[in-house]
Amino acid sequence: MAERSKTYEEIYAIVRLIPAGKVANYGQIAEIHGGCGARQVGYALNNLRSHGEIEEVPWQRVINARGEISQHGGGAGSFIQREILEAEGVEFDTNGRINFSRFRWVPELRIIETLTSP
DNA sequence: TCCCTGACTGGTT
DNA sequence: AAACCAGCCAGGG
């Protein structure tokens, strides 16, 4: 259990910046982080379950590049994820996908600077 | 240290 | 449009 790794904390810090009602995809988080791939973001969020910070990190606001919720937690977690997002105001189309042009999180430059500064 | 796995992605078939 | 393939990086056995 390497839950306190720098990479993970970085990822969690970025995810925490996503406001309610907005979503980001794994690749977007990885791009902001600048040092890991999309798979690592998903892996970090998976580790989050064991980490105990799941209550502090809005993991539900991270979805895949197709605008759809990825299967995880045996599927039950994915169902819960959609429930939470809808409660936050995110809308799904008839195919169960989210319209990125309307709900994609666009971080401000100032926020990125906050992350990169020690 | 090697090998496998995984909440992903983008380009080809 | 859907299935496939090959990168991707960090952890755990």
Quick description:
The protein has helices spanning 6-15, 26-33, 38-51, 76-87, 100-103, 109-116, and strands at residues 24-25, 62-63. It is mainly α.
Structure commentary:
This protein is mostly helical. The chain has 6 helices and 2 strands; from the N terminus they run αβααβααα. Strands 1-2 form a two-stranded parallel ribbon. Helix 2 (26-33) crosses helix 3 (38-51). It is globular, with a radius of gyration of 14 Å. The two termini are 25 Å apart. The model has no long low-confidence stretch (mean pLDDT 87). The structure holds a DNA duplex (13 and 13 nucleotides).
Question: Strands, helices and their partners?
Answer:
Blueprint: H1 6-15, E1 24-25, H2 26-33, H3 38-51, E2 62-63, H4 76-87, H5 100-103, H6 109-116
Parallel strand pairs: 1-2
The structure holds a DNA duplex (13 and 13 nucleotides).
Task: Tag the structure with descriptive keywords.
single chain, 118 residues, mainly alpha, 6 helices, 2 strands, 47% helix, 3% strand, globular, DNA-binding
